[in-house]
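In response to reviewer comment 3 from the previous cycle, which asked for concrete evidence that the modeling workflow produces usable outputs, we include below a single protein chain processed end to end. The sequence was submitted unchanged, and the resulting structure tokens are shown without manual editing.
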Amino acid sequence: MTEASPPDRRRMRPEDRRREVLDAALRVFAEAGFRRASLNAVSDEAGVTKGCLYHYFDSKEELLLALMRERAQDAGSLAQALSDVQTRDEMLARMVRVLSEKYQREGELDMTGVVLTELPHAPAVARAFFDEVIAPRRADLRDALVRTQATKIDPELAAMLVPWMMMGVALGHRLCGGVDASQRSPEEIEQAALRILSEGL
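The workflow returned the following structure tokens.
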């Protein structure tokens, strides 16, 4: 794990302490993996006692779910970002920009890696996250696609696939960014993804 600055031991508001624990959990889960990580490691990383950690979260699974909820809330609502678009081109441009910005946020790809590798082994957490976050956002995106007539395929399928595609783009850029001489800037990649979505290959 990267060296973290020692936590400030001054009295903190409960919501700030909770955020500190969540940030520490992301670092630990990203480094060790959810299954191998321990709550002791999280409490050590956060600079709190295990009793303090249990004050906020009853289990490691609850901590993971809270972390995913928090990250999703911080990313903002795609539906809100698309609420005022009127045309297909505007819809696609806004959608690609919002998803691209989401994956450029600090820690977002670390969180994505944890979700991809660990959720198959935590089905209750996966189901709760899908029901609370993914399904409503997918429905919002589907409705926006229908309203702007932005897709020629089943809007439900498009609303499922486009976020997956943008996640794949972001992960590919992270994976190959340091070794692929043909890599481009995030802005160039965003524009290319938009052209593929709007015009095809």
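DSSP finds ten helices and no strands in the chain. We consider this sufficient to address the reviewer's concern, and the full set will be provided in the supplementary archive.
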